[in-house]
Write a structure and sequence with these properties.
single chain, about 300 residues, alpha/beta, Ribosomal Protein L15, Chain: K, domain 2, Four Helix Bundle (Hemerythrin (Met), subunit A), 2 domains, four-stranded mixed sheet, 10 helices, 10 strands, about 45% helix, about 15% strand
């Protein structure tokens, strides 16, 4: 069963643990319960409101279950992600293999991820009726480590084709950019959970190298799934819905339940992220050669399931 993604956006709420449930209470007198969710049903918790407070016992219980707790800023970007330190019974062995991975292996794997991202971007362009050939042409040109930085070249072409020539990806801007920020926040949280559940450490990366980023591997592995969020944002913009609201948040979360084609059949994005992280651990251990990446056909059934 796919886990539920719970976001708390209302002001003056207290989150606590109560008999195996995440309990949300209003702190405005008279104090009252506003909702509860079984901890075992959770995939992620996103704290995106002012005046929130949390109990230590709740954060410990979430950590024990590998459920990431995401703290968001005013622009809907994550400020911090609390993730489990112990996510797999062979974690120490997988950590060792991760740290011992050679540079040629990491460069080869990064090239595979870049090819997958470019192919997914091309599929998204096809889905909206835009020219996809410029992105498809780049896929075959990607070499080990992506020395020509075709990922960035693809991004420059992609955003203009998808959102129009006047669009610029800016994490501090509003409108479509704020929708993208929120969608990527949820995707990042789910990928972080997949990484820790696979027994990998979220920091030692294949490519990302920002010294201030403790989630570099997470940012590597979420790349092929960003176009699913992009497609959802495009649809919202076409409908004139460019603000981050309760309704648009629900649709952005639901995008992670869209199904992508894989070798084992149609698979939700969240499960694809889990399989990708697990396959990376197996590559590090020498148990397989290739990453488990989605096929280049884009979402099969948009918004297959709703989410909280």
């Amino acid at each position: 069963m796919l886990g539920r993604i719970v976001e708390v956006t209302e002001e003056r709420r207290h989150l606590s643990l109560h008999r195996g449930f995440l309990l949300v209470e209003s702190t405005v007198p008279p104090r009252a319960e506003v909702g509860r969710v079984p901890l075992d049903d959770l995939a992620a918790v996103i704290a995106n409101g002012h005046g929130l407070s949390y109990s230590h016992n709740l954060l410990v219980a979430l950590g024990e279950r590998g459920v990431p707790f995401v703290l968001c800023g005013s622009n809907h970007l994550p400020v911090a992600v609390l993730a489990a330190l112990d996510g797999h019974h062979l974690q120490a062995k997988r950590f060792d293999a991760q740290l011992a991975a050679s540079l040629p292996i990491r460069k080869r794997l990064w090239a595979d991820i870049v090819r997958s991202k470019l192919a997914q971007q091309a599929a998204t362009l096809s889905a909206v009726g835009a020219a996809s050939a410029p992105l498809k042409a780049l896929v075959a040109q990607v070499r080990s480590g992506d020395p020509a930085n075709l990922e960035a070249q693809g991004a420059r072409r992609y955003w203009g084709l998808l959102m129009g020539d006047g669009f610029r990806r800016d994490q501090t801007a509003g409108g479509a950019n704020s929708l993208l920020n929120y969608g990527y926040t949820v995707l990042r949280a789910c990928t972080a959970r997949a990484v820790t559940a696979a027994g990998l450490h979220p920091t030692p990366a294949l490519h990302h190298a920002n010294e201030g980023n403790a989630m570099r591997l997470v940012d590597d592995l979420m790349e092929p799934f960003r176009p699913t969020v992009d497609l959802c944002v495009w649809r919202l913009v076409q409908q004139g819905r460019t603000e981050v609201t309760a309704d648009t948040k629900r649709e952005l979360v639901a995008a992670l339940f869209d199904e992508l084609p894989t070798e084992s059949g149609a698979t939700p994005v969240m499960v694809c992220a889990q399989r990708l992280a697990t396959s990376l651990a197996q590559v590090y251990l020498g148990e397989r050669k290739k990453l488990d990446l989605p096929a280049a056909k884009g979402p099969l059934r948009p918004h297959a399931e709703s989410a909280d």
